[in-house]
Design brief:
It is a single chain. This protein has 3 domains: about 30-55 and about 180-270, Glucose Oxidase, domain 1, CATH 3.50.30.10; about 65-175, Enzyme I, Chain A, domain 2; about 285-615, TIM Barrel (Alpha-Beta Barrel), CATH 3.20.20.60. Helices cover about 50% and strands about 10% of the residues. The chain contains 26 helices and 16 strands. The strands form 2 sheets. Strands 1-8-7-3-4-5-6-2 form an 8-stranded mixed beta sheet. The protein has an 8-stranded parallel barrel with strand order 9-10-11-12-13-14-15-16, surrounded by 5 helices. Strand 7 and strand 8 form a beta hairpin. It binds phosphoenolpyruvate (PEP) and magnesium ion. Phosphoenolpyruvate (PEP) binds near residues 326 and 486.
Amino acid sequence: MKTEDLKSNGDEDVLAKTNRDQNNSESRKREIIRYGISAAPGIVIGTAFVVDSQVLRVPRTRVSQDRAEAEIVRFQEALDITRGELLQIKSDLADQLGDDHAKIFDAHMLILDDVMVKESTESLIRAESYNAAWALDIVISKIVTSLGNIGDEYLKDRSADILDVKQRVLRKLLGIESEHRQNPTEPSIIVAHELSPSETAQLDRRYVLGYATDLGGRTSHTAIMARSQGVPAVVGLEDTRPLIETGDTVVLDGNCGTIVINPLDGTRETYEKEIEHWRQFEEQLLTLTGYPAETLDHRKIELMANIDLPEEVASALDYGAEGVGLFRTEYFFIAQDQLPTEEEQYRVYRTLVEKMKGKPVTIRVLDIGGDKIAGYLHNSPELNPFMGWRGIRFLLTRKDIFKTQLRAIYRASAHGPVRMMFPLIVGVDEVVQAKKICEEIKHELTLARYKIDPDVEIGIMIETPSAVVLANALAKEVDFFSIGTNDLIQYTMAVDRGNTKISHLYQHLHPSIIRFLKMTADSARKNGVPAAICGEMCVDPMSAVVLVGLGLEEFSCSPNLIPEVKKTIRSVTFDECKTLVKKILKLSTTDKIEKRVWTFLKERCPDLSMFAEGKQHGK
Ligand code: PEP
Ligand code: MG
């Protein structure tokens, strides 16, 4: 459903009002529409299953002095049982989703084995004769309060892990064994204020239709898991959870980041049509898998996959990706509690390269920082993390981490075609420095008789205004460009890409963005360097036709969106897209540009225009 349809006159409940008249039924619950962040695509209508982190009432009692040691033994037994339970969840998760996801539980195990937690609880039992549950509650509350005061995003996540572990141990101590395990018994939309990794992992996947959470962004664990599981998700719904009860009917639109609670008949019917339309459209798109991404006048565009986890390779191949255009190495680092070793990284990159069976794999070196934080690397919060110690800046000051990763990437290059790219470049000197380190690593590996590909192509992400302005000079230093519009738009328009309050200002087709893209494409062409795009922008059909017209040669996007992008490319000619670009370059506002592109797209490909508008405005 198009966001604009729901938002007419900026009034969230206009649709509800119209439908209320139609339904005329007092007994029905009120329809409520809420907007969040689209975290995984797809639309589903289903029954809500609310997962609440159960608030346990912890009794404050005293045990007699002679019972204190027995209470401590009871506490230790509770820790042991919880450890066994967590190991079981970890192993189940490894079977279902792979080792990388299962590593999330390493943090839980560390908390459980933390000497301070154990000793402080035991000494409270001994000194104050508190019951074990009360003593543990005091100790954990103090830790969580002190983490909260630091105000760091990563540490906030760790607080969630600590509370998760506390709940588990408390349940054992209070005899609320495994509570009513919060698991749906029929296909449901999982609704929560926040889902801890262990809660997400314990849900029976057969019954999960989608996720809706108040907290979280596109990079939260829930979002990443939803994408791996292929179910729609909307996160960042703010204070929506209290509006939903288990059993309520919910429409979850992961394409637009919208949910509708208790949809009235008219809304439901509209969405049912939308789902059917989407299903037919997807079915039709899948028939394109074996065909090239080629315009009607035979301009070939390489269609590649963006992947965050190696497990996504299978779907990349299923959807017909011609390679990996962006492998974000950050998630692998974030999922661990310490730096992955060269061997661990080598295994991941090598597996990825082998699974792609000769198709190129573009590995982006660690783009940690911004909203992608690993606690073991960032111990002091930054005021402006997106403008801070991020991407190549981080790596050039932590050369130890950079070199280890480069060694692993070069070693993986012996097993298939690998390309490498550097994120958040703002100037030529960064590229020169990074390339020099690459040369050193190649030399070291060759001396040590490792087999490597010495000609691994080196590219850069064009995702800052500075890189655009310097594109001509940068092109002389590299083998390819990959335009990261997710960041390029945020830095050009000064719009935080994750801030829902200003998401209307995040505009793909803003005249400044089109001009920047043209400058980049022209510099690349002039210097004989191929230009790719790996930002989400390329999946929006309205933007895709413009990108074709600008002469970009490779598009890279989430695997499941590849067929749609292919359909767009196959519906137009290169010539008419070039003409369209010439026309929109003369226009000075987003509105005028969108209208012109919209008219073009509706005429060439009415099916795609149906989806373009929703994507265009949803973020
Ligand atoms: C981008 O910025 O467009 C990009 C692809 O990188 P990321 O989304 O990982 O920042
Ligand atoms: Mg980026």
